[in-house]
Known about the structure:
Order of helices and strands: EHEHEEHHHHHHH
Strand content: 5-15%
Helix content: 55-70%
Number of helices: 9
Radius of gyration: 17 Å
Structural class: alpha+beta
CATH architecture of the largest domain: Up-down Bundle
CATH topology of the largest domain: Glutathione S-transferase Yfyf (Class Pi), Chain A, domain 2
Amino acid sequence: MKLYGFFRSGSSHRLRIALNLKGLPYELVPVDLRTEQHLGADYKALNPQGLVPALEHEGRVLIQSPAIIEWLEERYPEPPLLPADADARAQVRALAAIVGCDIHPVNNRRILQTLRQQFGADEAAIERWCASWIDAGFGAYETLLAQDKARGRYSFGDAPTLADAYLIPQVESARRFKVDLAPYPLIRAVDEACGRLDAFRRAAPAAQPDAD
C-alpha cells in the first residue's frame, strides 16, 4: 500500500491511525500542501480532486478518507474499528461524523486559505473561526461521552474505534489553533488514553518524515 498524504492533514492523520490500528504496513508518499503539490498535474492524475489522502493498493487508487476507512474495515475486518451491534455502530459513526462532517470540512486548509486570500482574515480571525466550529462540535461530543454510562477509556467501550481515529486528529488541530480544551475533560481523557497506544503515536503529525 502507498499512502499519499500530508503530515498535518487531519484526514491523512485519521487514515494513518486506522492503518496502524489494523496493523497494515504502508509506504508513505508525502504530498506537500504548502507548495500546492496536490494541485499539480502528476498528483491530480492520481486523484482528480486534488486532495489528500489517497491510498494506492494493487493498482487501484482509493480516495476520500471515510470511504477508505470503510474499505479497510470491510477488507481487513480484524481488529474491528466498529462494534458488532448495529445500534453501537450507529453511535460510533455519529461521533466520527461530528468531526468528519461538521468540524473538519469548514476548518481544512483550502477553506482557511480562502478566508485569508479572498476575505482578508488575519491569523487571529482564523483562530476564532476554527475555535467556533471546534467548540460547537466538541461540546456535543463531550455531552455524548458523558451520556454513555457504559463507556470505557475510549470514545466507545474499552478499545479504540473509528470515532477515536477521527477525534484525535481534531484534538491535535484544536491545539494548533489554540482552542481551550479545559471544558472537555472526557475528550482530553480519551486523547490521553489513545496517546498511550503505539498506533496513535506513530500516526502523529510530528512523527511523520515530512514534518517540519
